[in-house]
Each structure stands twice: as C-alpha cells, then as structure tokens.
Design brief:
The chain is of the alpha+beta class. The protein contains 3 helices and 6 strands, in the order αββββαββα.
C-alpha cells in the first residue's frame, strides 16, 4: 500500500472520538469506514473524502481538491484533497467533518454476494 503514514495518523486522531471506525486497505491505500460506510481514505499524499454529492461541485473549486476518478468514471461525491492544503489541523478537520456529516445520511455500500460453490 502506498500512503502517507503521517497523514493516516492525523486522520486517525480526527476520528478517535467515534465508536465505530474500521480501517481497511482499499484503492491502493487505506480507507476509514465509519458505521460500516466508506468515509475518509489516504492514498499516497492525499486524503479521499466521501462528501455530499449536492455540494460536490462547490468543493471541487477549492485549492488542492480534485475529483476521484475510478477507471474512466468520475465518482461524484468523492474528492481527493492534497496534503499541501492540509497543513493546519483546522484544514484537515474541515474535510474530515464534511465527510462525517455526509456519512450520517450516506447509503451503506452494498456487499456483493459470494457465489455458491458447485457442491452446494
């Protein structure tokens, strides 16, 4: 996995007050699941935030923010934020809190059903 461990520790610190946080390797980085929903992640020198799709376009206008592109598809509601604009705790907290706010209303990711084996 290629992600900035220092940045991951800063995100851990921002989420430590929550009761239901899990860390999972995902997207060649580390993802923080809150209440079993993807919320914040770290990939290389950026954080990934799952934010409200209704405010997505406005957030993309901010410095150091880019859309998440998975394959050839732009993932509306997911942004990457460069570590360069996260120097201050307040800057990181802004993005983590934005993701946590959306997490409250975000749908849970559907889990894929494993195929039954031929002997079943």
């Amino acid at each position: 996995m290629a992600y900035n461990e220092k940045l991951a520790n800063r995100v851990r610190e921002s989420l430590m007050h929550l009761p239901n946080v899990q860390e999972k390797p995902m997207f060649s980085g580390l993802t923080f699941m809150v209440d079993e929903k993807m919320c914040v992640g770290i990939k290389e020198e950026e954080i990934m935030c799952r934010i409200n799709p209704e405010t997505y376009e406005a957030e993309l206008e901010k410095n150091g923010v880019r859309p998440m592109i998975h394959g050839k598809r732009t993932m509306k509601g997911f942004v990457f934020v460069s570590e360069e604009v996260l120097d201050k705790k307040e800057d990181l907290d802004y993005w983590v809190n934005l993701a946590l706010e959306y997490n409250k209303i975000a749908p849970k990711t559907k889990k894929s059903k494993k195929k039954k084996s031929a002997s079943s």
